[in-house]
Specification:
This protein has 84 residues and is mainly α. It has one domain (2-83). It is 77% helix and 0% strand. It is built from 5 helices and no strands. The chain has helices spanning 2-6, 8-23, 29-46, 53-73, 79-83. The N and C termini lie far apart (46 Å). The mean pLDDT is 86.
């Protein structure tokens, strides 16, 4: 279990990426972010990973913002964003 603990930030980032992809729909940014946070909470609990909710509430919002920023520049490109 030590190896998993050492990779916890990377694992959380992957889970956040999956959550962001699952809740994606045009608009409603704040609502999607809350749905993604909820999905990550539920997934972590279902996997038996014990991270205090206060820690997740502190770490997840900026992590999801970072993931969405990367997805906006890569995966979610539209014809109008390609013209820039």
């Amino acid at each position: 279990m030590k190896k998993a603990a050492l990779n916890l930030p990377a694992i959380l980032k992957m889970i956040c990426t999956l959550a962001a992809l699952v809740v994606e729909e045009p608009g409603k940014g704040a609502e999607k972010k809350q749905k993604a946070i909820q999905l990550v909470h539920e997934f972590i609990l279902s996997m038996g990973i014990h991270i205090p909710k206060a820690v997740l509430d502190l770490v997840l919002p900026p992590m999801i913002d970072q993931v969405v920023g990367i997805l906006n520049q890569t995966v979610w490109l539209t014809p109008t964003t390609l013209v820039r």
